[in-house]
Amino acid sequence: MDFHNNKLILAPLAGITERVFRRLCRERGADIVVSEMVSAEGICRNPARNRHYIEFSTTERPIGIQLFGANPRSLADAVRYVEDEAHPDFIDLNSGCPVPKVVRKNGGSALLRDARLFERIVSAMTRAATVPITVKLRSAWSGTDWVDTTFARIAQECGAAAVALHPRTRAMGFSGHSFWGRIAEVKAAVSVPVIGNGDIIHPNDALEMLEVTGCDSLMIGRAARGNPWLFGQIRRRLKGEPIQTVTAQMRYETMLEHITSYRREHGEARAVRELRSQIGWYLKGTPHAAVARERLFSAADTAQIEDAVEEHFRSAPNLTKKPQRQNTSSFSQEH
Ligand SMILES: Cc1cc2nc3c(=O)[nH]c(=O)nc-3n(C[C@H](O)[C@H](O)[C@H](O)COP(=O)(O)O)c2cc1C
Predict the structure, then answer these.
(1) What is the CATH number of domain 8-238?
(2) What is the pLDDT of residue 329?
(3) Residue 221 alpha carbon to ligand 1 centre in Å
(4) Catalytic site residues?
(5) pLDDT computed for residue 178 by the predictor
(6) What residue spans define the domains of the chain?
(7) pLDDT at 316
(8) Phi, psi of 215 (to 5 degrees)
(9) Which of 39, 101, 255, 326 sits a CA distance of 20 to 30 A from 306?
(10) Choice from 13, 180, 183 to test ligand 1 binding pocket (greatest atom count within 8 A of CB)
(11) SS3 content of the chain, % helix, strand, coil (to 5)
């Protein structure tokens, strides 16, 4: 598994990076994808119920399954189970999630408060695994008590194959801007590949992160929602080629594919519940988005979600979406 050479990685996003969205991103330029986080305890206690989280199709490879938890033995057992049942290309440890439900049980970013426990967990996982183990860190629990370099070094010493860093503190949640300087610090501290993450919205951000941090690869989360083309656009930007624009037709076809595949994969009930927001992401910044979103949110079934998509496309079929940095208008009329 190679995490060098500017790999473009779809970040784990709970509730979003399930198999359909992962495939859409792989087909549009992501080099590597990661599952949403899966509870190690859940896998150990009730493997059947949690199985769907770790399943994927071969077209998604290379793929990592991300685990969260705070008990070294459970994480090691979960690693063995995931390897035996799903055979992913790597397994990632979540050491950054700030959500209270996870932190309360000492998982996610709570690990950043206990270097000894983190060390035991990463060691237990690398000993149990035959595939590479990676870790995904935040920079600190709160304030400027940076622990990222220390934790990256520990991970490396325990046999981790790569470190991904989202340089915000747990206390920040998703507010403010990530501290890209911390990625450079971690890059200087370890010899394993460092994956930079945080606030890549536009292809130029990707180039800038590589330049200012020296990181080996990039991970993109929120900006990929409703925009799986971002990976291909970044790739072209890195090669110095013109960035491909996303036409209304491309967006329309991908939305319909997303709906059809999701329904087939997860069933009508879950599809209607989840797709209202997931399809909503594609509409971001488009004309008449508010009207379409209203229709989406009142949709009673996926057929009505498709109707909303259809109607939106008909209202502006010739618009081209150019990648834009935040807070700028993102549409221009196509000729
Ligand atoms: C809705 C949502 C769900 C997330 N779920 C996970 C997760 O399951 N595991 C994880 O390590 N990070 C998770 N994250 C954090 C992202 O992977 C990523 O680190 C963060 O969004 C910063 O990257 P970005 O600026 O490219 O979005 C989540 C973030 C969001 C917004």
Answers:
(1) 3.20.20.70
(2) 34
(3) 6
(4) 97
(5) 97
(6) 8-238, 246-321
(7) 77
(8) -65, 160
(9) 326
(10) 13
(11) 50, 15, 35
